[in-house]
Amino acid sequence: MIWFTWRQVRSQTVITAAILAAFGVLLLVTASTITDLYAEVAACDGDCANVVSTFLARFRASTAFPAYLAAVGAMYLLPVLFGLFGGAPLIARELETGTHRLVWNQSVTRTRWLAVKLTAGAGLAVVSTGLLSWAVTAWSQRVDSASQDRMIPLLFGSRGVVPVAYALFAFMLGVTSGMLLRKTVPAMASTLALYVGAVVAMPLWVRAHLVTPAHDTIALTAENVQGLSLSPSSGQMTVVGAESESAWTVGNNTILPDGSTFTGPADLSTCGPDASPTKCKEWLGSLNLRQDLLYHPDSHFWPLQWAEAGLFVGLAVLLGAFCFWWVRRRIV
Fold this sequence. Notes:
Blueprint: H1 2-43, H2 49-60, H3 64-97, H4 99-104, H5 110-139, H6 141-147, H7 153-156, H8 162-181, H9 184-206, E1 214-219, E2 225-230, E3 237-241, E4 247-255, H10 268-271, H11 277-285, E5 290-297, H12 301-329
């Protein structure tokens, strides 16, 4: 059974190994460029804001930047590929052709048949994604340290252990879809739709609540007003203060001293359509407004990583348990 399963997944294994090797070479070649550019930042002692800005500008103009973008894309694409081409056809293809009955008549139990297949497929997905995620996270460490933006949703899902959990979940989602739909193409379509929905929903509605965010209330001054909108007819206005640096801001409200949300009315003589933005900001700064911030600082990176990874691994385990129940009770 093990040899038979290896024959089924060996093509995927060889292709995955070739892709990882090629990507590893790309990261290795461009790593020296980042190291050279980062030398001034590493040697800086004191106020290094200008040095960091220069480093980031040079990095974006260097040959390493396309590799950086490719690395982010690869970390989101690889789990999808394991779900579509590893998980979805794994059982669906057998059910379509009826070869599962032949295996079960060769003294191989349904549980062993499924366990070997899941172990081989899930192992390939986890090991491959884990190696690539480790390489990308280490390779981009200097850039992430300088830009301090690894907490933003786009980069967060391409670093650390989260991509590994994504790959395991995508694979198990594909297996479950194939087992239920019994057709490879419909299983691939449903896997793609459900996986994308889960990954998109995570930063929008779930991730911010996995770890309790930090909460600050600071004075809103003319200097930290980031944006405002005004309705000249009603005088209502919305004011947005500057977000926390090196953090993922999940709540940013402007409030009055009594804690209620500030909505105006605006002084149209200073904040009207013909007024100066500088005078408007000075007027806002004189109202004793407060900025109510909820955010996840950089120190929350690993707690959020482990919490989100644990959530997706838990979902994958539940899908696996369902598959074992289904293959014993429902498949004939």
